[in-house]
Write a structure and sequence with these properties.
73% helix
Length: 98
């Protein structure tokens, strides 16, 4: 092998290696592609979670519009309301020791 062929081979190897580094680590390279895929997967999961939450809230709204028993249970649990003609009995707490 002549000196000219050795230099040409070395330059070719250097160019191929530089191109490989640019493909892997450069802008829009393999590393960026992996990060984008990871971000995309996370956004898809978040989107699915929000879609499920929207469906749950839609069903809850429909029940609040049309289901009197559900409205009553929400009023009792969340607002602490009582029904008509109901009495709340609270046990008396004695502060004096026996």
């Amino acid at each position: 092998m002549t000196l000219k062929q050795k230099v040409l081979l070395s330059l070719t190897i250097l160019v191929i290696f530089s191109t490989l580094l640019l493909i892997v680590f450069g802008d829009n390279g393999v590393v960026d592609l992996h990060q984008l895929i990871t971000r995309h997967d996370a956004l898809v999961q978040e989107n699915e979670k929000l879609a499920r939450e929207n469906i749950r809230l839609y069903h809850q709204i429909e029940r609040l519009k049309h289901d009197p028993d559900y409205i009553e249970s929400v009023a009792r649990q969340e607002l602490g309301m009582i029904g008509k003609d109901e009495i709340i009995l609270k046990p008396r707490t004695d502060k004096t020791p026996k």
